Hints:
alpha+beta, two-stranded antiparallel ribbon, 15 helices, 17 strands
Amino acid sequence: MSCRKLLALLMINLTLGLPAMGQTITPGPACLRPVPDVDPRKSIFVTELDVVQNAISLEDVLGLLARQSGIPGLEAIDLWDQWWDTQNTSPGLGLGLNCDDRVDANGIPVINRFPIECPRNEGAEINIDPFDPASSAFYEPIALVNRMDLMPSDGANCGEYRVIFARRSGVNNRLRRNLVIFEATLPNPRPGCGSEGCREIAEFWASLSRISDPMARAALLREFYLRGDPSQGIEPVIHISHLSPGAGQIRTNQFLNTQANSVDWQLREYKLALFCTGPASNCELQFVPVSVKTNPWGQLYDEFSGQSQTRRFMRQFLTQVDELANPDITQFSNSISNEFNAGQSNSQGSENDYTAHFDPSGNFARAIQRRLRNLGSPLSPTEIIRRSQTQSCAGCHQLNNTSPANLLGDGMVWPQSLGFVHVTERATDSIGGVPHFRISPALDRVFVPHRERVFESYLADLPCIRCMSLPLGDGSNTPDFIAVPAVPDGSAPLPLTPAEIEILDADRKMDSSAIPIGGPRGIH
């Protein structure tokens, strides 16, 4: 419908006192708008030292979460200790879960029924102060990330907004590295407007490209992450509800070696959960270890592994061949049911090397080949498995870096990380004479340009009639809590198990099935 017809319809509705679709509307700008040109290193993937280091700190993040919980006396360091104690054996600090709380029939610690390494060296982080800038154990911010490309096309939320921290010891010691990333899902402040309800958030990020002063950009980003915009109903990025079941997640990228114990580089995932016996009762705020998404246990690719889930996994995998055969490197994907996801993703060794478990001449391979033949695809079953591996944390970060694992068929080559990471604390680049933490070739040449195109297209797609529904709140939403039974003496809640958290996460996401505006690929 043309702008003229839409405006005519608007005037008729206004004359008759009939708001469009039950909303208060006003004439908007012209339908056609030139595609804006944002600076991706200011508005998409921000690693400028003067910006990130002045915008936010790990103590800011954990301190705000502690205050939002309403738990008397809870401090940032308490959350830190509980988080990393999950990688120690019980009884640990007695603050929550430990890595051996769930074991299989053979007594092996598990997450989501798959084995995990327990304990890990990173459990010793309970003994350090991550907030001390004078310490080699200080965790400094290295990136602030706009992932509006993850916004569902129906505007169920406004995508994810991330902050990455790295342990300073990694700058000079490649064997003493640890990175953490908070990936918060930001609610749509005007859900009645669908995806249009996220426009103010998009305009905020776009505005950063027009500001030359890094300190001014740092101040604006600090406000956005820690306070939001209450006048527009935009909640702060850092919020318990935005990292809880049904929303975002926290991920870790761990490689803290010691002389006594050398470990593989490993990635893990957490949900933040506020457990309460009632809205105003005694509560506990905990980091809960959960499965790593789109990260199936490697042995499921081996038809003779003896894993009880193997046959079910292979049946589901065959339904994903069409998506994995997509010729666009930014679009191919696979959707993995959570029952198949492991609790850790190893960037070294064979555990997550799917091609090492896969028999290219077996029945599974022949079933994949039949599907490819029906699609008219020139790809081989092995290339489909390699593509699936890129969707896992380990594949995206390391295992698909070199030949032949990076050869994905149809002339496609998986772009490289920086060796385990996609943004590094160990090196900087000068961009326009300004130092930025270095990002990977994969981000720089492929994925950030794709996200920029998606973001600019959203900004340019301005409707003739602007949706003016009022925001839901003032940006200070009460954190979601999980009601749980009290212990017999009523002194504390009984937290849900990680498996129950996974179920709750899936239940809360059940209605959010729309494909993201950037394509079907998940969190990587």
